[in-house]
Amino acid sequence: MHFYTPKSVLVALAAVNTIGAYAGLTTCSSSSEVLSCHNTTEASDLCCFNYPGGSLLQVQFWDTDPSIGPSDSWTIHGLWPDYCDGDYGEDCDSSREVSDVETILKNQGRTELLEYMETYWLSDDESSNEFWAHEWNTHGTCINTIDPSCYTDYYENEEVGDFFQEVVDLFKSLDTYTALSDAGITPSNDKTYTLKEFQSALGDIHGGYEVTLLCDDDTVYELEYYFNVYGNAVDGTYEPAAPLSDSSCPSSGIKYPLKDSSSKSKRATRSHSRRRRQ
User: Fold this and answer.
1) What is the number of domains present in the chain?
2) Which pLDDT belongs to residue 14?
3) Which of 11, 66, 233, 251 has the fewest Cβ atoms within 10 Å of its own Cβ atom?
4) Is the dihedral of CA 177, 180, 186, 191 positive or negative?
5) Of 33, 134, 135, 239, which one is the catalytic site residue?
6) What is the domain range of residue 195?
């Protein structure tokens, strides 16, 4: 079994920043950690147990109309907490909604994180800052283990920076493009592939588990890696898990088109917003 263990990133704040030194989430005792979605009794410490959103999905885009991001990489959609039955909540805490993620990350000294997001976390129909705010407001506020009450010496929006850092760290551990390429699945405007071929290739980086692969008709555009987590969503251990929703792609004839650099100026009608699954 493959385990993804994210590394905590301790950020040294700039001298002009009056927030103070980074303190971080309260440490979870290994003896008290329970794998999310696997508890048999009520968890006593909800800062160390993801609930009710115990299934965490790392979601990636393959956008080609317009083409978004590097031609040799998928891009980030987000990290979504789902209930353990495939249902989910959204917009869970309006009091912690933000509108300017870029400024928050700059004020926290997370410039390298911001630069990475500017390349690999992009929207096809709005500004990056609007997209990031949507992902935090809609999904990040639903992750209970990064609630401000779970922090030591909490400062405003600390959990926002931690959320984006964790999403990026998890994305880096799931190099979809390379996994597919190593299996002979490369972008093409002529070739097609089977769902089984995709699942076999991606299972190699996801503990042998399938992913949820989404298509517009027969063209792949998105996928979802499912995880359960020991501990909190930032310092915890992510364990690959079986998907809780079905793929929408056909069993064969799946198109995986090239990204066309000439189409970057187009504006797509498809929103980044989450689609209800069939």
Assistant:
1) 1
2) 30
3) 251
4) negative
5) 135
6) 55-263
